């Protein structure tokens, strides 16, 4: 263990929390109460870890967080747009629940890849 908290990790954790929230409508619409319950429990754990990571961040690291959150937001929007285009071209009506879930998944992946590409050497 022993890894120090970084704003990059915190932005990924926040993205994971957003992704988990984005999947909830699919479980509600599909009637998957058990999966919904498990997802809510996991979301509570992720929220707790986010709070702990926030408290452990230094002031300098916290100052870098707004830029990372903007990048996360742009990645989530880009992921949703790309998934809307993809579903429009390849399938029939897909529902907003699927679009939000798949868009958030792609957006978080794009954010993680952008952090990996711009990782400090």
| Secondary structure tally: strands | 0
- SSE order, one letter for each helix or strand: HHHH
Q: Which oligomerization state do the chains in this entry correspond to?
A: single chain
- Helix content percent band: over 70%
Radius of gyration: 16 Å
Structural class: mainly alpha
Distance between the termini: 21 Å
Low-confidence stretches: none
Q: Count helical runs.
A: 4
Structure report:
This protein is mostly helical and 121 residues long. Helices cover 84% and strands 0% of the residues. It has helices at 7-30, 33-56, 59-90, 96-117. The longest helix has 32 residues, at 59-90. The mean pLDDT is 92.
